[in-house]
Structures are given as structure tokens and as C-alpha cells.
Design goal:
Blueprint: E1 4-7, H1 13-22, E2 26-30, H2 41-48, E3 56-61, H3 65-74, E4 78-84, H4 89-99, E5 104-109, E6 126-129, H5 146-155, E7 160-163, H6 172-179, E8 183-186, E9 191-193, E10 196-197, H7 199-211
Parallel strand pairs: 1-2, 1-8, 2-3, 3-4, 4-5, 5-6, 6-7
Antiparallel strand pairs: 9-10
Helix pairs in contact: 1-7
């Protein structure tokens, strides 16, 4: 079975259209201002307008509830929220209560060697396991921890696990073979610059999955 694909960090209409034409289902828009792929809320609304309802993913880092209200109003369907591991439990509960268990995608910034906190599974149906970076929240091009992903997916099969981190046309087939991932998040590995996607790289990555 070919994995479900999300492309993250979209900033241009042409890239949205290319992704949809190539068969990408989930399309992610970043509103975390320190990110080189971030856009304004006004720009996010413009991009959401050409993404089918049900396929729009908001990406941010530890937003407050007021921001989440504005993101819901902008038309997003799923909410991929990155956060440091010292985030209060009350915040996770508030996110889940407001957005809903099925709509919240949690992306913990898990340092190497630290055990995955199973308590997160009480708040969200979907977990994004991204590569760790001390100074950033995703989009670094670093390869994620594939063995950890494989173990978590096998141990908690009721959870939707998304593999992120440095996926590109050259390694995407190996990533699926080694992790069993059914859901992949593509970003820097199909770009020519932050937020500027290359449709030829996207098609090459998707083609590698088909051949694999």
C-alpha cells in the first residue's frame, strides 16, 4: 500500500496545485513566524481557499488558544502543533478539548535518548515524529529516528504515526521499508529553497514509493 503523503511548508499557489495534481492529500501551511517557511494568517487564508476542505493542515509551535481560534476561522481542518517537552499538561488538554482528539496532530520535540511520553496519546489520534534539532522545530532536513518510529508504531497501533524529517526521493523508499510508515511528511527534501517546492522532486519521491 502506498503511504498517505503530506507536503508541509507550502507558500505558493502553484505548489499547492502541483501537490494536488500529483496526488498529495494533506497540505501543510506554517504560521510559526521564526520559520523560513512561515506565512501570514492573511496569506494562509488565500492558500486555504485553493485547498479542498478536509485537507488543510495548520502548522505552528505551542500556540495559545486565541491563535487556535483564528486558525479554525481561517479554514484549517487539522492542527499540527509542535512543542517542547516541558509544555504543561494543562496546555495539551486545552488543545485537545478545543480542537478535538481526531483533529489534533501532536509533534513533540523529543531529544535523542529520551523515552517517548505515552501520556501524549491521551490527547491526540495522530503523532508526528520529526527529527530533533536543538534550535528549530522541524524543517531542518535532518533524518528522523526511524527505529524509534518503527517501535512506537508497532507498540501503539491504534495511533496514527506520521514519519517526518529529511525525507527525499533518494531515501523515501528505504524509510518506508525500515519503519512500515503509512503516512509520510515531505518538506525540505522536495525544495529548491525554503517554502519553494520542486514538482520534479515531488514526482520523483512519489515515483520511488510506487516502484518500492
Amino acid at each position: 500500500m502506498i503511504p498517505t503523503i503530506k507536503v508541509c511548508g507550502l507558500t505558493r499557489e502553484e505548489d499547492v496545485r502541483d501537490c494536488l495534481a500529483a496526488g498529495v492529500y494533506w497540505l501543510g501551511i506554517n504560521l510559526y513566524s521564526p520559520s523560513p517557511r512561515s506565512v501570514s494568517l492573511i496569506r494562509a487564508r488565500e492558500l486555504c481557499a485553493i485547498i479542498p476542505v478536509g485537507q488543510r493542515v495548520l502548522v505552528d509551535v505551542a500556540p495559545d488558544i486565541n491563535k487556535l481560534h483564528s486558525y479554525v476561522d481561517a479554514g484549517f481542518d487539522r492542527f499540527q502543533l509542535h512543542f517542547p517537552m516541558n509544555l504543561p499538561q494543562e496546555t495539551l488538554s486545552a488543545w485537545s478539548d478545543f480542537l478535538g482528539f481526531e483533529n489534533l496532530w501532536l509533534a513533540p520535540k523529543l531529544p535523542p535518548g529520551e523515552p517517548f511520553p505515552d501520556r501524549l496519546l491521551d490527547h491526540a489520534q495522530t503523532i508526528v515524529l520529526d527529527a530533533y534539532s536543538r534550535d528549530a522545530f522541524g524543517g531542518t532536513g535532518k533524518i528522523g529516528n526511524w527505529s524509534l518510529f518503527q517501535n512506537l508504531k508497532a507498540t501503539h497501533s491504534e495511533t496514527n504515526w506520521i514519519l517526518a524529517g529529511g525525507l527525499n526521493p533518494e531515501n523515501i523508499s528505504d524509510a518506508v521499508d525500515q519503519t512500515g510508515a503509512a503516512f509520510l511528511d515531505l518538506n525540505s527534501g522536495i525544495e529548491v529553497a525554503p517554502g519553494i517546492k520542486d514538482v520534479s522532486l515531488l514526482r520523483k519521491a512519489l515515483g520511488a514509493l510506487v516502484r518500492g
